[in-house]
Amino acid sequence: HLSVLDNAESTLKFTEVNANEVIENVVNTFKLKVERQGGTLTASLDALKSDVYVDQLQFTNVLHNLLENALKYMREDVDPELSVSTRDIEGRQLEIRVADNGIGIHRDDLKRIFDRFYRVSTGNRHDVKGFGLGLAYVKKMISAFKGSISVESEPGVGSTFIIRLPLVS
After folding, report:
1. Cα dihedral: 10, 29, 160, 90 (round 10)
2. Rounded to an integer, what distance in angstroms lies between the CA atom of residue 147 and that of residue 162?
3. Is residue 160 scored above 90 in pLDDT?
4. What is the Cα–Cα distance from 169 to 152, expressed in whole angstroms?
5. pLDDT confidence band for 148 (50 / 70 / 90)
6. CA 130 to CA 116: how far, in whole Å?
7. Most exposed: 4, 50, 149, 153, by fewest CB within 10 Å?
8. How many CB atoms lie within 10 A of CB 24?
9. Distance of CA 160 to CAs 34, 49, 102, 117, Å?
10. How far apart are CA 168 and CA 94, in angstroms?
11. How far is CA 107 from the centre of its chain?
12. Residue 125's pLDDT band (cuts 50, 70, 90)
């Protein structure tokens, strides 16, 4: 991920892809992992137009990264519930939402979660591994795809990552 972060412009292979199909493949691949944790992963791919211009491998990695984080930061008192959805939005854009019912992110941390090497404190949980590069990578890729990413989160309730990508004309 770090090498892609540093050399994104020179290493990406852009092609036109159907985002709904890529998301469906990722969800089908990831569903078993979620079910092993006692949870569910649902997909609502409602976008009628979902052709975007991205590097398919990196786009797939972005989705995997967000789903991995959802499992990594799940609450211990409830089974994980993850969802991925797409919809058409104004301005010829596709919106992708990756939502969970995990531990959530405090407002103070929201400003920095996309910074390199920044890790949200998990309190007394010591089983959360990582270097703080995942969301920096996600943000860099979405920006390289001429899109945007934001997050809505509430501690103890969960998080929703919202990606907006321009549709292929």
Report:
1. 70
2. 10
3. yes
4. 29
5. very high
6. 12
7. 4
8. 15
9. 17, 22, 10, 21
10. 10
11. 19
12. very low
